[in-house]
Amino acid sequence: MIIDDRHYDIIVIGSGAGGGTLAGALSRAGRHVLLLERGEAMPLSDQNVADVDLLRKDRYHPKDEHWFGPDGDPIAPQTAYALGGNTKIWGAVLERMREREFGEVQLQQGISPAWPLDYSDLAPYYDKAEALYHVHGKVGVDPTEPPRTKAFEHLPRPLTPFLEPLREGLKRQGCQPYDLPISWSDNQDDPSGDAQLYGVDNADTNNLQVRTHATVQRLHVNPSGREVKGVEADVDGESWLFSGDLVVLAAGAINTPAILLRSSNERHSGGLANRSEQVGRNLMNLQLTSILQKASEANSGRYARSLGINDYYWGDKNVSFPLGHIQAAGGVLQDALFAESPPVLSLVSKLIPDAGLERLASKSVAWWAMTEVLPDSENRIWLNNNQVRINYIHNNREAHDRLVYRWIDTLKAVEADPLTRVVTAEPVHPRGEAPLSVVGFACGTCRMGNDAATSVVDADGKCHDIDNLYIADTSVFASCPSVGPGLTTIALALRLADTLDRRIRG
């Protein structure tokens, strides 16, 4: 084993929305940071503007990575091991959690638990996160918009022209479509902002050391078992040991608990930071259904996420429980998630030639229906012979089904409107649910809470059992909102950066 002779203030494991943001912020605060990333810099060619090959190739499925699902069959996870983590393949939509979502919320199938912090604790960091990631948006349109003290610094990105009549058609049906808040870089080669651009590349390079091709195997603790004394990683095929005053796990809702479980020892036989036996449990993965609408006008098939609809977020005229969020998914050739995950398209893509796929994309509008789920201790990840195993069954299904059918009814009404000519009436709207392999919205496997007996970290992200170990990714989420977790993860990372900086200063 090679022992790194440098000692760092902080070691950050993972460079996504949490880790990349945190490492950049701490370096700018003058802290010496080591960032360990399993992947490497992703080539820019067609990274964010996908071509038709994306519909055929599992580009974003790591070739050497397999997990195992509830039936024991292998899963090729749709995840990115690269500088920037999963933000390299995201739609760059950055939404705030709603104020109510930090407390208990009555869902159709149970009560979503409260967080150990509230919206006001995170609001100033939401402001900082939106500024750091150059979020483009407009206040005052979304009917569920949480309180804020200032407008977005950047105006919304202009809609692709054929979507403007669709926006007006939705308004005539009583909806309040709004411009999705989107991180945007104005770089033609890499237009959507991500954690590499606004986190890693935005760091003070004098204070940040980045090691790519560094797969963390386990964490080693001191004799008392109360502090991490070393981080063991494979770097380009060689075993290395790194040391730092503080260690932060930001490897995501699957790999963070996997590292903790692999780090079991005599004092932590069930895994590191797992006295509560909650590490790996309460996995939540946002319910996602893609819905395809036929367009009457040709479009490029390449455009960013655009419109959001939250008119059914807290229910509709028929029910009082929350249903969830709707968003235009972006161009079919633009959106990697849509292209790869729904069975309705993945099957089609294997059967028709490239020209046919281009025509499909250019005559379609794709929508995402998104509904939260409840934490369930039986939905979890664990290790079997060092292999990641996942047990997961969606809950809160009725709410999601109601949202899907409610949205299809809305689309039919828009299509029947003679003033809306950019879409055509169709008897069927093809749809498909994102499979378990789509883990970009996974959260909750190292939940935060005030009670060490029922949670893994406290409200600051510090592990209850390990004094110098923190977690900065979606695994700490106490509940699963119906909007994407990206902005909340970034805000929590910026909040943690302040916490760690104060701790180092004493």
Describe the model.
The chain is α+β, with helices and mostly antiparallel strands. It has one domain: FAD/NAD(P)-binding domain. The protein has 10 helices and 23 strands. The chain is globular and about 75 Å long. The two termini are 33 Å apart.
Question: Secondary structure elements and their pairing?
Answer:
Elements: E1 2-13, H1 19-28, E2 33-36, E3 67-68, E4 74-75, E5 105-107, E6 110-112, H2 119-132, E7 135-136, H3 163-172, E8 178-179, E9 182-183, H4 195-200, E10 208-211, E11 214-221, E12 228-235, E13 238-249, H5 252-262, E14 284-285, E15 287-294, E16 307-309, E17 325-328, H6 336-340, H7 343-351, H8 354-362, E18 364-371, E19 380-384, E20 387-391, H9 397-416, E21 431-433, E22 442-443, E23 469-471, H10 486-505
Parallel strand pairs: 1-2, 1-13, 2-10, 13-23
Antiparallel strand pairs: 3-4, 5-6, 7-9, 8-16, 11-12, 12-13, 14-22, 15-18, 15-21, 16-17, 17-18, 19-20
Helix pairs in contact: 1-10, 2-10, 3-9
Unreliable runs:
47-56, 336-344, 347-352
The proportion of residues in beta strands is 15-25%
> What is the strand tally?
23
Overall pLDDT level = 90
Instruction: Figure out the total of helices.
Output: 10
Q: Write the CATH architecture name.
A: 3-Layer(bba) Sandwich
CATH homologous superfamily designation: FAD/NAD(P)-binding domain
What is the number of independent domains?
Answer: 1
**For the report, how would you describe the main beta sheet?**
7 strands, mixed
